[in-house]
Amino acid sequence: MRPFDLHEPRSVAEASVLLRQLGERGKVYAGGTELLLILKQGLASYEALVNIKRIPGLAGIAYNPSAGHLEIGALATHWDLEWSPVLRERLPLLARVERQVANPRVRSVGTIGGNLAFGDPHADPPTFLLALDALLHVESDRGTRTVPVAGFYQDAYTTALRHDEILTRVVIPLPTPGTRLGYRRFGYLERPSLGVAVAMTFGDGVVQRCRIAIGCVGPVPLRVPAAEEVLTGLAHHEVHRRAAQAAEAAAAAVDPVDDLHGSAEYKRSLVEVMTRRTIWDCLSEVGGRSDRCASSSS
Amino acid sequence: MRIEFVLNGEPCSLEVAPHEWLLDVLRDRLQLTGTKRSCDVEVCGACTVLVDGRPVSACTYLAFEARGREVRTVEGLASGPHLHPLQEAFIRHGALQCGFCTPGFLMMALALLAAQPTPAEDEVRRWLHGNICRCTGYKRIVGAVLEAARATAAIAGRPAP
């Protein structure tokens, strides 16, 4: 690997100024589980890395009761999320999704902020967070802005982050009572070939709000409103019956690409099967919140 | 940059470049060659070491990140002539053939037993799924880890799984 200079700023503002000065010659470095691989393989090279792990206040996982939000610092690792008592109590499905990321070595070092900001299409958290309407706090010395996950991804490896901005926090509005959550991933490689997330809120006996997000098959994770509309307004038993129709709508709406994980046709078929199963997962527990996380990977 | 860390219980002070890998520092500068390089992309687990008790892929972990931390390699498992219960169990079960992946399996199993002292078999398989062995077919490795867990639990007075 080519040598680089290391900068270790102690504040977001300092990091932001550094990144602007360095321009394309510098890059944010946190866990490094993605970045170091591409540097090692010669797919990218930088004269300087800006290590943001010494900036205070960017870690931690907390429940904000007044807002009903979970607030996750960008430097929280997948391991921190997998084992977090706060997450296991408030949003156990996210802890289970995180438990399936890569392997324990990658989870102990890789950060949630890095995972989101790197923009690898074959990742689990972006799809799941999209279905939960999560918000991303993005900071620079010029100020702070909030970007919904839905508006964050522009293309594979391309996000709404500007060069001098740092993703500092993930804010997840906790699902309202009556919400059923499901997440399924599929793949034979360590990275998922497909991720499907469903968040379905029942009220007065019918689906009042539905989010279905599909990830990994195209360059960015996407919600599929055509599938969500099929289920909205339906009673519990009708959702079961119409799940196949919603899954077909999801498969028709995605725009899969051919790659190492399979052909576009294969992926479209996967989307249909896995969307149907994830919807069914959401129905499988009567009463309380179903938060099944299924994995069909090897 | 100069870094200080604890390596297998002993203080260690070293000048490293920011781009040096922990694996190269361990193998080439400190002659701790138990930790192996294989896939070199965080997938196979042959380079697994523990940093502050958590497993990392030393092949893709910058050496400077060890500063102020505690690093444990396979060389730090045995105490003098006394093998670690995991090593004893690997030998008893014949949980290795060529042995190249074994240090990585031992260190990942050590991390597992620290987090979950009495794991069920599916937990052992889940923890080890990111370590690759091309000889044994895993059955004996899983058996060895389960036995080591029982042995350690017996010593610590915990209920066996």
Number of helices of chain B: 5
Number of helices of chain A: 11
Nearest-integer average pLDDT of chain A: 94
SSE arrangement of chain B, N to C: EEHEEEHHHH
Strand content of chain B: 5-15%
**Which radius of gyration of chain A do the C-alpha atoms yield?**
19 Å
What characteristic shape of chain A results from the CA principal axes? Answer: globular
What is the spatial order of strands in the main beta sheet of chain B? 2-1-5-3-4
Class from helix and strand fractions of chain B: alpha+beta
Distance between the termini of chain A: 32 Å
Helicity level of chain B: 25-40%
* Strand order, largest beta sheet of chain A: 4-5-10-6-7
Uncertain residue segments of chain B: none
The tally of beta strands of chain A, per DSSP, is 15
**How is the biggest beta sheet of chain A arranged?**
5 strands, antiparallel
Biggest interface, chains and residue tallies: A-B, 23 and 27 residues
> Low-confidence segments of chain A, ≥5 residues, pLDDT <50?
286-290
Sheet bearing the most strands of chain B, described? Answer: 5 strands, mixed
- One letter per element, helices H and strands E, the order of chain A comes to EHEHEEEHHHHHHEEEEEEEEEHHHE
- Percent helix of chain A, as a range, is 25-40%
Please indicate the percent range of residues of chain A in DSSP E strands (runs of 2 or more): 25-35%
